[in-house]
Amino acid sequence: MKSINVTLESMTVNGEEVPLLSADLVVVRRPETDRIDWECVAFTLLMDPFPQEPVFLEMVDVVESRTLSGDALVVRSDQNRHVFRGGGDLNGLTAEDGLESDQ
Length: 103
Known about the structure:
Strand content: over 45%
Number of strands: 7
Radius of gyration: 13 Å
Low-confidence stretches: none
Largest sheet: 6 strands, antiparallel, barrel
Mean pLDDT: 94
Helix content: under 10%
Number of helices: 0
């Protein structure tokens, strides 16, 4: 199994800026599949929870300032903790991430 953990500088949910305190993106590729699994866990200033529904995330990597984006589902959300599960591809990954299926 190959994985990366990305600390996020900022993120939007359906184009709306999220007031982050901290957030991490975990991306995993299992050897038995060509697909990746990804999840974002975000801690925010107090805000209204997100409804449990599909969303589009845009996330900026704190180290490289690159944008990673994709469709996700809101798994859990309260006033300051939010969990998003990737619903398909994650745009913005590069070969340097080491997640290619043939490595």
